[in-house]
Structure formats: C-alpha cells, structure tokens
Amino acid sequence: HKDLKEGFEYGSRGFTRHAQIRPVYAINVGKLVELAINGRIKSEREDDKLIIDLSSLPFTKILGGGKIKVPVKLIASSDVSITKKAEEKIKGAGGEIIIAK
Fold first, then answer.
1. Strands 81-82 and 61-63, how do they pair?
2. CA nearest 41: which of 22, 24, 64, 25?
3. How far apart are CA 38 and CA 52, in angstroms?
4. pTM (2 decimals)?
5. CA 101, CA 51: separation in Å to the nearest integer?
C-alpha cells in the first residue's frame, strides 16, 4: 500500500491534555506574614495593620498554618482561595480580608 511508510503506524499514541493546567502556589498564612514583616515580600503599614496585596504575588492558595501576632489586612483577588482556618487566624489577630474584583 503506497500510503504506508516504513516505521510509521496509524493510530493515536499517548494522551492529550485538553484542560488548562493552573499550578497551585500555596503558602501558610504564618509564613506569608513572616515574609512581609521581614521585607521579603512587598507590604505596607496602615496605622497598626500590615497590608499585604496578593495581586503582585504568585500565591493562589492561603493555608492556615503558622501563627499571626500582628493584625493583617489581606487584599486578594477572587481566584485566590483562603482556607477557613487561615481566615479565622487573620480575623482572630484583628485583621481583615478584602476580596478585590
């Protein structure tokens, strides 16, 4: 058959991923605040609150590990997920979470 080439087989091989892969960059809330206090990530101070804007950071998930000793104002977009434990710790330390559109 003239369509067949030597070493070539018809049919599919392997697999194709059709869904978009979005990597998850998770960080514990205690580590996030620690990095902000040490000046490793960009943050601002307003009165006694530490303001962390997640829009300029690669994190997509905030986990509830670690301790928070200062009140934190966390500004996050709607595609960043924050666990209940992290939310409790932020609010327990006198902080707040703002979801930006």
1. parallel
2. 25
3. 13
4. 0.75
5. 17
Residue listed under structure tokens 């979801």: 99
CA pair distance 90, 88, nearest whole angstrom: 6
**What are the residues whose beta carbons fall under 8 Å from the beta carbon of 83, sequence distance 6 or more?**
61, 62, 63, 64
pLDDT, one tens digit per residue, over 35-92 is 999 999 999 998 889 999 998 899 999 999 999 999 999 999 998 999 999 999 999 9
What does the CA dihedral 78, 83, 87, 88 come to, rounded to 10 degrees?
A: 160
pLDDT reported for residue 25: 93
Task: Decide the pairing of beta strands 49-53 and 96-100.
Answer: unpaired
What is the three-class DSSP state of 27? Answer: strand
